[in-house]
Amino acid sequence: MISDIRTIVNHLQNVMGLEGKIGVYGRSLGGIPTSGICDYVDMVIIDRSFSDLEIVAERRFYSKFARALYKIGNHDQPVHSARNLVNGGINNKCYKLITCDIKDEMFDA
Questions:
Q1: CA torsion, points 102, 108, 27, 70, in degrees to nearest 10?
Q2: How many CA atoms lie within 13 A of 32 on its CB side?
Q3: What is the pTM of this model?
Q4: What average pLDDT score do residues 26-52 get?
Q5: What is the DSSP letter of 75?
Q6: 14 and 22 Cβ atoms separated by less than 8 Å
Q7: Distance (Å, rounded) from C-alpha 72 to C-alpha 68?
């Protein structure tokens, strides 16, 4: 999905001749690929996205077994997330606005 977004940004800039700043808005599940394209755009807005998909797997399916299956299916690779942006796991210079709802059951403080 991130490569698709890169292709769109490239098309906008190089084929359509878009000049100026580009910002991307990602909400909920869309915040994950949005956090992965910071090197290609000028600003990202991540609105109430998941902080950690492993935690989502565990809490939604009520078991650590679901979390383990997620890690196996993902080949234990790191996933782009708002948490990585906040913790400095993804280095870039784009502007970032990250929102969350502290009462959301998926929020991990």
A1: -160
A2: 11
A3: 0.68
A4: 83
A5: T
A6: no
A7: 6
Contacting residues for 86 by C-beta, under 8 A, at least 6 apart: 98
Nearest in space to 81 (alpha carbons), one of 26, 9, 17, 40: 26
Yes or no: say if 48 and 104 are a contact pair by the CB < 8 Å rule: yes
> Is residue 23 predicted with pLDDT exceeding 80?
yes
Contact 92, 38 (CB under 8 A): yes
Contact 43, 21 (CB under 8 A): yes
Side-by-side strand order, sheet with 43-47? 23-27, 43-47, 95-99
Neighbours of 85 (CB within 10 A): 23
Q: For residue 107, is pLDDT > 60?
A: no
**Tokens 């956090």 -> residue:** 35
Count of other CB atoms within 10 angstroms of residue 46: 26
